[in-house]
Amino acid sequence: MSTSSTATTPAGLKRVVAAAMAGTVAEWYEFFLYGTASALVFGQLFFRQTDSPIDGIIAAFALYAVGFLARPMGGLVFGHYGDKFGRKRLLQLSLVVVGITTFLMGCLPGFATIGYAAPVLLVLLRLIQGFAFGGEWGGAILLVSEHCPDNRRGFWASWPQAGVPAGNLIATVALLGLSSGLSEEQFLAWGWRVAFWLSAIVVLIGYWIRSSVDDAPIFKEAQARQALIQSEQLGVVEVLRHHWRSVLVGIGARFAENILYYTVVTFSITYLKLVVHKDTSQILLLMFGAHLLHFFMIPLMGYLSDLIGRKPVYLTGAVLTAFWGFVGFPMMDTGNNWLIMAAITLGLAIESMTYAPYSALMAEMFPTHVRYTALSLCYQVAPIFAGSLAPLIAITLLNKYQSSTPIAFYLVGAAVISIIAVSLTRETRGKSLRTVDAEAATRVAAREQAEVTRAKLV
């Protein structure tokens, strides 16, 4: 396995990783807040109440899914300009926008005060937040992937992924402190808002850390080459024209991870509250322990993908995803806190096997000058059909069948899609990004020459 000649020094690489993680932590703090609030608060405060508490939760989860609709558009816009002007600038912009919208969510009056304007304003802020969030992951991953050695990309590129549980941990601590120190009425009235307002501090810290790094040399070289070509074509057009097979693989590969994650992290909160009858503080404490372990699992799985390959780690996780629902929910049903935490931790451990290698795998599939656009497209389109609907589908299945078994079969379907997608791709462990660029250029040139030849024959 080769080592990139432009790999950043160890000290510089750690600074880049910190910068990428800082923004990821901040944005996932805010995103987890929204998901948790959907399960615990929004159903009661922002929608007309009915005789069934599940109705409000279903409405809140439907609104939760709305934000995912804006993410692909945000990914394409941020990806296009990130490929054109640099990863760092667009990452800073996305961080600020997400922070502002999250703060404003904490200021919104509820249904009892302004009626249907409450969910409408929440939808609007959610769409803006989702648009900005769409530009975060691809840029953060590439900031690290394009700086690190080829033979350690799985490990280093997994650290921004670890920003997900880190952000969740901070959000859980904030919510746990507020829910424990306040009565149920106080938490519903104003306590949850404080956690949203605290996002301003998290964002400022992330922005300050992120301002200390620069784009990688390989990106600047690709940027200079594209300037010489003076192409006006949108990056997404080139991605869909020349790399559509890799895009389909990237979208399909996310189904197992995305659906499992939002089932374990978001839907489980509702399941534990409605079915197992755990109180909010207990649930958040259990989530805290699981997120803490998840933080360490992600870089471990990234490291394993450097040792044995992206595909073996990924496919093992996808296969195990198909079994988690048949094991995890019965463990929760016992009501035993240790078994509940073990079920959540097991789900996140399996998810980390499909999440950690994904960043390196995707970075090694697309050329530098369209990599931001391509990664954002794959990463943000998949959740529209996967994670965004997972809590809604799960609560609907639970409400209809009064059983977790249909939800377990839903996870089986997600696993099958990802197994097929990842099986169709080649192993990329240790591949140089310069080789990726050269191979892509050769394929595109051959395809264009073939098109010219066909046109002459016609």
From TrEMBL:
Gene3D superfamilies linked to this entry: MFS general substrate transporter like domains
Keyword Secreted tagged: no
Gene (name only): abaF
Single GO MF descriptor: transmembrane transporter activity
Source organism of this protein record: Pseudomonas coleopterorum
A Gene Ontology cellular-component term: plasma membrane
Matches recorded under SUPFAM superfamilies: MFS general substrate transporter
Transmembrane segments: 31-50, 56-78, 90-117, 123-144, 156-178, 190-209, 259-276, 282-301, 313-332, 338-358, 370-395, 407-425
Cellular localization per UniProt: Cell membrane
This protein's name: Fosfomycin efflux MFS transporter AbaF
InterPro entries: MFS_dom, MFS_sugar_transport-like, MFS_trans_sf, Sugar_transporter_CS
